[in-house]
Design brief:
Length: 480
């Protein structure tokens, strides 16, 4: 068992490199996204978005939940990693063959013949990704967040340059498709290089069988998560148009870039840290509450702030041809502010090996979301969005009560850790809205909004003597 100093060092470095990774990643995504959105149309984004659900489900099936299973497996050895590698790779090839021949059916469902060659190319990404499972798990299990950060940043830069070049040359949605496949290929290559994990021809079904009970539940859970996350694209593609899918995907991309900056930091350290302190309840409670406060401290101002400046941000960065997506983004960001908290709670459940609870909680959420969106789609996109967002926010309390079986946390303590940051965020935004309402210059407007909201938030926290702000400033000062 690691002592407090060692564990704190690992967690702190993990959060730092996770933040640097996600921050740099989102900055690159911002730059790349601006170039691509200016070169491409909602239809181009919609074409790729229509296929997202199929490749995501195939990817979840071939991954098999083994990343989480191997992370929790005590004393995982070379045979375990090697067996997972060969099993996942074989499975992914089988899924690709099935989807290859199903491509005409997918095109017929959406009434878009161009999807046949496009889908067959994009589906290569999950085959390539399967090769990456073993070395990626090795990095994750050992809290090698710095290496993961470098891998992600380099891969994103290479794939982004390729996508921009192809889009500039007139390849339209093929540029986005090449970005997806190239990114996966680079991640796979660099994961082997950085992890120094040596591939062997060892294989045994025994470790697969031993992990299957846990991992199979993760797979089922991930599939329902994918259905939940992509139900909008499916319904919009079927009952609306590819351009509507493109607008939604554009908004959802910016929303994802926002909340994944926080959730990526938390996910990179939460499950391994909880697993390391599995037998120390009080220590785990303290770690959990500190991570919870840090999550709320970052997530609420970041995501509500993005919602506040969404229209100005979209027009400045990717022009007013995407203005409709800005209204979608404003709503999605409200849900995005709470998503990292759900990630933290679910990581706590997984760290206890309670994959059954994780599975059924996620399935229940997904079925509720799918039913709600399906029955609300005749009333328009924005009705669907508000229903979707409301359920996601309220479901945090379901995750909380499920996680209480893993760690005895009081509801009062939970709310005490997150509500102050939510209230202070709203207090910071509301007066700025009235201050800037008459400013017509879009550039001046967004600058004043950002600086005033950030300033008010910082000043209020400083006056209240918030501990998490002090610790964050001390850490940044030390790193500087």
């Amino acid at each position: 068992m690691q002592n407090d100093a060692q564990l704190k060092s690992k967690v702190t470095k993990g959060l730092f490199w996770g933040g640097l990774n996600n921050g740099t990643q989102q900055l690159l995504n911002l730059v790349i996204g601006i170039f691509l959105a200016r070169l491409l149309t909602p239809f181009d984004y919609g074409m790729v978005g229509l296929l997202a659900i199929f490749s995501a489900i195939a990817s979840a099936l071939q991954e098999g939940g083994f990343i989480s299973a191997l992370t929790n497996r005590k004393n995982a050895n070379q045979l375990d990693f090697s067996s997972v590698f060969w099993f996942s790779t074989t499975l992914s090839i089988c899924f690709y063959i099935i989807l290859f021949f199903c491509a005409p059916l997918i095109a017929e469902f959406y009434d878009e013949p161009k999807l046949v060659p496009l889908s067959r190319f994009i589906f290569l990404s999950f085959v390539i990704s399967s090769i990456n499972i073993a070395p990626r798990t090795f990095l994750f299990k050992n809290l090698r967040v710095r290496d993961t950060a470098l891998i992600t940043i380099i891969s994103l830069a290479i794939s982004g340059v390729i996508a921009i070049t192809l889009s500039f040359l007139g390849f339209a949605y093929w540029g986005l498709a090449c970005q997806t496949v190239t990114y996966t290929l680079c991640i796979t290559i660099f994961s082997f290089i950085f992890s120094r994990w040596k591939l062997s021809f060892q294989f045994s079904l025994q470790p697969i069988k031993e992990m299957f009970g846990y991992s199979s539940k993760i797979v089922i859970t991930n599939i329902f998560n994918i259905l939940n996350n992509n139900i909008f694209a499916v319904l919009l593609g079927k009952f609306y148009s590819a351009s509507d899918v493109g607008d939604f995907n554009q908004a959802n991309k910016w929303n994802y870039m926002g909340y994944s900056l926080i959730s990526g930091m938390i996910h990179g350290v939460a499950q391994p840290t909880f697993a390391l302190t599995d037998e120390e309840k009080e220590r785990q409670i303290n770690i959990f509450r500190k991570l919870l406060r840090f999550t709320a401290f970052i997530s609420f101002p970041a995501m509500f702030g993005l919602s506040f400046i969404a229209k100005d941000f979209i027009v400045i960065t990717i022009t007013d041809k995407w203005l409709f997506s800005a209204s979608i983004l404003q709503i999605l960001c409200i849900s995005g502010a709470f998503y990292p908290i759900s990630i933290l709670l679910s990581n706590l459940v997984l760290s206890k090996g309670r994959s059954t609870s994780y599975m059924w909680t996620t399935i229940a959420l997904s079925l509720l979301q799918i039913a709600a969106v399906f029955f609300s789609y005749p009333y328009g996109l924005f009705t669907m969005l508000w229903v979707y967002v409301s359920i996601n926010i309220l479901w945090i309390f379901v995750w909380f009560f499920v996680s209480r079986k893993s760690l005895p946390i009081r509801l009062f303590s939970f709310l005490k850790d997150i509500l102050p940051f939510l209230i202070i965020t709203l207090i910071s935004i509301i007066p700025v809205y009235f201050i800037t309402i008459l400013i017509s210059n879009i550039y001046l407007n967004i600058l004043i909004k950002v600086f005033l909201v950030a300033g008010f938030y910082f000043i209020i926290l400083r006056l209240l003597g918030t501990q998490i702000l002090k610790e964050s400033m001390q850490f940044l000062s030390h790193k500087k």
